[in-house]
Amino acid sequence: MGTNISEILELRGASLEELSGKIIAVDAYNMLYQFLSIIRQPDGTPLKDSTGRVTSHLSGLIYRTTNLMAMGMKLVFVFDGKPSILKTGVIRARAERRAEAERRWAEAEVPEEALKYAKASARIEPGVVEDAKELLGYLGIPCVQAPSEGEAQAAFMAQRGDVELVASQDYDCLLFGAPVMVRNLSAPRRRAKPEIAILEDITEALGITREELVEIAILVGTDFNPGVRGIGAKRALKLIKEHHSIDNLIAGSVIDIEGIANYELVRDIFLHPEVDPAYELKWREPDESRIKEFLCERHDFSEERVSKALERVLRKGSQQSIEYWL
Hints:
Strand content: 5-15%
Largest sheet: 7 strands, mixed
Radius of gyration: 21 Å
Helix content: 40-55%
């Protein structure tokens, strides 16, 4: 979910074509949830193979990811590690919402209602991440395992200049310091266009620093704290522009500390996150035989469709310098 500060952020529309040639760090869990939520049958049932294993995420990876690759994007998938203990409440609340959505899905009598609740019930079951990493490996896409927050790791890689953008639906990557983020990268074109957020442009337009943007997010609420009741992004912006920090707001008795009692810990998570500097990025040409064995023989995918998806990537790669795969 991230933080709800969208109303004060100005993003610009973009096209997939202008992202060609860019190195993009993908928030892996975020994208997998998208695939598991959206790629379903009309009654809400996720795609499955003949043994009953869910394959919606694999479908998204092979068809949508190869489309991005064919457009010249070099992707890196960054996976979450161990969540902060401060996220316990959020994780529990999400699990409860999914369980309730699953119950309503089972009871729904109207197809539209069933699909809505089915999407809301999406979860990453054991094996989904392992399957995704295996397929990504066969596709030649590097995977990076973050020690904690995947968006923090991706932002760190962008700050180093090893990737150019961070792809996520959440704005947390900006709080972690990603210079540029892209939203809706994997969404179907008919549903949502890509959007670009440039951290420097945002802070300059708002007249604040990145550190103050973090303060605003904490006041509104993040995955690590609930926020101050009654304070939205616009009011939080006004308060921080006037007082510059939560410390000053508290010292002046401007706000109640309830909802931000752990603000110093949350601030530290965003400004000094746990990351792994020893990651390795190396792209390889897709292994067509391994991909077909994994998808077609083990998970019942259409060999014809998989071949067409791979043909676009392999043809694109052959037209580019060999450096594309290095």
